[in-house]
Structure formats: structure tokens, C-alpha cells
User: Fold Acyl-peptide hydrolase from Brevibacillus invocatus.
Amino acid sequence: MTDTKRGITAEDLYQICYPSEPQLSPDGTKAVFVETKMDELRQYQSHIYLYSLEDNSKTALTSGPFRDSFPRWSPDGSKLCFVSNRSGKAQLWHLDVNETEFKQITNGPNGISSPVWSPDGRSIAFAAFLRTGQTLTEGTEELTEEATPKSITVDKMKYKSDDSGFVYEKNKQVAVVNIETGSVTQLTEGTYDHAVGSWSPDGKWLAITANRSVNPDIQHEIDIYLVPVEGGEWKKITNSDGTYAMPTFSKDGKKLAFIGSVADQHLYATMKKIWVAELDAGTVQCLTADWDVHVGDATIGDVRSPGHPNPGAVWTTDGQGMYVIASEKGSSGIYLVHLDGSVTKVVGGERNVYGFTFDNEKNSLVMAVSDSLTPGDLFHVDLNTETEKRLTDVNGELFQEIRLSTPEEIWYEGAEGWNIQGWILKPVGFQEGNTYPAILQIHGGPHSMYGHTFFHEFQLLAAQGYVVVYTNPRGSYGYGERFVQACCGDYGGNDYKDLMHAVDYVCQFDYVDETRLGVAGGSYGGFMTNWIIGQGNRFKAAVTDRSICNWISFYGVSDIGYYFSAEEIQANPFENPEKMWHHSPLRLVANMETPLLIMHGERDYRCPIEQAEQLYMTLRHRGKAPVSFIRFPGANHEMSRSGDPEQRVLRLQYTVDWFNQYV
Ligand SMILES: CSCC[C@H](NC(C)=O)C(=O)N[C@@H](C)C(=O)N[C@@H](CO)C(=O)O
Assistant:
């Protein structure tokens, strides 16, 4: 039979869509969710859809060239709110389920996010960025040329962020709006950032999170607070000893569950755990101290932007435990963590669960799931019958015509005999007896996890005739705390060896042409790509994206530089510049002879473009190997995942062209 299917292309990105943020109605009969896609103008749109579980129909509730998000049912299921930029900035909108008209509720100057209904359905709490002195009722701040300051005085260390740009003078505040009268009460103020958690069942308290330490520049603790909605004294629940997030009240209002980690020597290289506060007793206890698994979705992909609103810990109806997403060995699933610390897997499988929602009685759930052949879809699980049903196939039509490659899982011996997990994608149209070039792909973080999720870039390379190898070297999530922390202070040491052992491992296979190897990675993965080509000429070509090459300058220019280096490199430029330099690939330029494509966003504040500039200049000056430098104007660190669609496609095309030319 002739195969009429084709390999995936870079431009297919314009067609790929994905659902997120499923929200089951309290009675479990319908779900709303967000569907994100690109329009004919190659701009993102996201709309709210309603899925009826009674007749399996899917209806768009919103439309137009807008970004709609955060759909949330009122407690009785009769109303919905959502956030939309349809009037300019992201504001809160309200929709009565039986009507088609929606109504704008907030008019904050810089937009709002994270709405949470009060238990009586009369009010909604939300978060908003405000400048000192600004109020939530003064209308949208116009971004006119005059509004752009002629100078910016910097007096904090945390003054810019890759997400939000220059964050001087603006802080995230929590407020409550009455949906009938539109009156807004701002609950927090000051030069601290706050985030909304949940309402107490009696509607009197709002659990929020904030870093209100004396010097938030160097104190990274995030505490849980209870704020009385009608005014009065706050209650501090945690003890400024860690970073905690997403507090949720138990049904009886006596406990709070939240996710976080204690601040010991690692801020990032520490797995998130579940904590429970007994509010009357004033105690806080870690429920999962002995569970060596990361709570949260650590999976890295290139179709969805990371950081979709996560449900956090969802209490069982009997208050004896909570449901969370956790990440293990390349998969993320739903787990039930009991109050005694025991854990049961509720939804497993080789896939990436990136969102979930329950009905009120916890009889059923709807989850957002990706796997290596599916960018994302929704599934319904009946917890009583333990049956699962697929609700959407949002890319079904497109993928009918595309031949994807199915990854093969590998486990191989890394440095020190450690067992390392990885995957091999064979080229589309693979034929036994032929040999193929291979590309090693390296993820960033370094504390993230490749896994059972869709990766457009890998499928594209497979469609172009490459074997793609991707693995989780030490430093990755998914294999316990010791594994996550094992790269700290040793960048380019055993993490590098874990990756090289993967290459040795795949080169054993007859179908891999070991004389035609390429390597690519972004961020930490870009650091490692630079490091690898500084070790020798094993690879025919390399692509380094949003990379790090010089830890000494990274310290001062990255939004996280001054604390990231302390933990990850275990050095700083004024006490031990030798160590910073030792781990910097720029030190190795004299060895670099591999044709290198450097790509970088000009507005990347995480790994600023000066890193790419230094590497480019030194390599050009030496003139030993082809080097090309592509700058992406306006792009930040997230460009390859959620940036301008045309830039994303260009990036993929440059990657393929470079490997096709040199490998
Ligand atoms: C959880 S480890 C911390 C990673 C760090 N993220 C934050 C929020 O600070 C980070 O951005 N590290 C970069 C050097 C990096 O490698 N980023 C990766 C993963 O986001 C990337 O692919 O861009």
C-alpha cells in the first residue's frame, strides 16, 4: 500500500492548536476550556469552548481576534467568568450561562489575571499589576509614547523579568470585585507581589501568597497569608522558610494545602512537595517528605507555553487527601496524596497531563493531556467505573495527513553507572539496512524533563531524515532529588558525560551514521551545546539557542543571574571568578571548530543576547569554523514555545537548513 502521508513541516505550526485549562461544571455535566490556535494573520487567538458531556457537543462561547483565558464556573454553575483582552488589556468578563451577552467587570490600568469565585458566587478575587499609587478603578493605562519614561532609575536587583519586561514600580496586588455592583476592594498594597489562592468556605478569608520579606531581592521566601476580606489583621501561615504556592482550603475550612519547598541551599534544584497547615493548631507539615517525586508538571515541550494555570492541590470530598499533578520518569500524571503521606496514582500512562478539573462530588474529572504524537487533547475519566473517554481531537484533521515518528524509550548507563532515560525518534520512512545522521537534543532548565509529550522540532527533524536522540541527564526532574541536584556546581561535568554516553549508546545501532552527528539545545541546553563543541569535533554541526556561554557576565545581566549562578554554578564573580570562568564555554573557544548556528531573542532577559554576541564575536574573530548568528527582534526567552509564530517557524527552518548543510 502506498503511504500518502507526509512528514511534518515547520509551517504546520500555524495549524497546530491545543486545549488547556479544562473546568468541569460543579454538577459534572459540562466542561469549559481554552483552545489556542493561530489565525490567518498568524497571530494567536484563544477562545473559550463549552463541551457538553451529555450530548458530546462542543460550542465556542467566545470568538474574534482575542486572547481569552481563565474560564471559571461560579459555585452554583449558573455563571462563568473569564479573562479577555477584547477591550484592550486583559480584563475580567462575566457570562450568564443562559445568555450570549457578556459583560466586562474590571477596568484595571494594566490588566488582571487569576480570577477565583467567592463561595457565595457574588464576588471574584483576582490579581492585578499596579504602579505605586494607581487604583483599580481608574481605567486602562494608555501605552502612549509620552508614557514611556525618558529614564529609568533602577534601585532594586529584581527590576526586570523575562516574562514581564521592566517591572520597576509595578507590583502584583490582590483585589475582590462584586459582580453585581462592580465595586472593587483592593486587599493588598505596597512594593510586594501577591498571588490569589483560594477563599475559605465561609467566604471570610482569602488565602494568598507573597514575598513580603525585608529584602525580596535576596530573600526568595514566599509565604502563605490569610487575608480577611472585610478588613482586619492578616494571619501568616508559613514561617518565611521556603517558597510556597497555590494554597487551597479544605471543605471544612480547617486546613490549607499548598505546594512548595523549603529554602535550604537550593531554590530551583529542589523538588516541590505538598504541605498542609492545620489552621486551629497553627502547625504546618510536609505530607510528601518521603515521596521522592516532583509535584507539578515538569515536562518540557515546544507547542504550549509552560506555566499554564495549574489546579494545585485539589481536596478530596472527605478532606482526607488531595489530588495533584506530579512528574516521574518522563510522564506526568494525577496522584492522590493522603493525609498520612501515602500516595496513589489515579491517572498514569506514558503521557503528559498538564491540567485537570473535578466535579463537585469528585466522581469524575476532565484532564488536558499530550503525548508524543498528540500536542494536546481533553479526556474525561469516570472515577467510579475507572473508564476514560477522549473528548477532543483538536488536531485530528491536520494529523490525518501527517506521518509522525513514534519515539522508542531507552535506558542507558550514564556517568558513575547511573541509569539514564532517553528516547530515540527514527526518521520518518525509516528503512532497515539504511544509515541515518543523528541529532542530540538537550533540554534547558536544567531542572525540567523531556518526556512523553509532543515535540514539533523533533518530529520535524525526523521528517527531514534524522534520528533524534533526547535524554534526561542528571539535573533533570523525574528521578528523585539527588538526581536533580547532581549537576549543581558541576556544569559540564557528569551532566556532559551523561549526554555523551547517550551518543555512544545510539552509535551502537547499525542505522546510526556516527560520522554524521549534530547537537542542539536551548538555554541550559544551549550552554551544554556550546560546552560540547568546546570539547572536540565529534559533531558535524551545532545549533545553540538562547544559550549561556559566560557565567561571569550572566550573573549581572540575567533577571535571575545573581542567584541562579550561586546555586547552579556555586560561585559568583567577586568571590570565585575562576569557577565562573571554568564552567563558561567561552573559555573553550580555542577548541571550537564545529559549524555553529547561534539563535537568540533580542529581548531575552533570562539569557540576554550579549551571551550570543560574545560567542559569535570570538568565533568569527578566530575564523576556524562557519558560524552564523540569527537575532530575533522583540523575542524573549520563550520565543521557541510561545513567541511570535513567524519567528518560531523561521527558527525551525534555520535549524533544519543548518543541519542539512553541515551534517
Ligand atoms: C526550574 S530550574 C530554573 C530554570 C530557570 N527558570 C526560572 C524560572 O528561573 C531558567 O529559566 N533557566 C534557564 C537557564 C533555562 O535553561 N531555561 C529553560 C527552561 O525553561 C529553557 O528551555 O528556556
Remarks:
- The two ends are 32 Å apart (CA to CA).
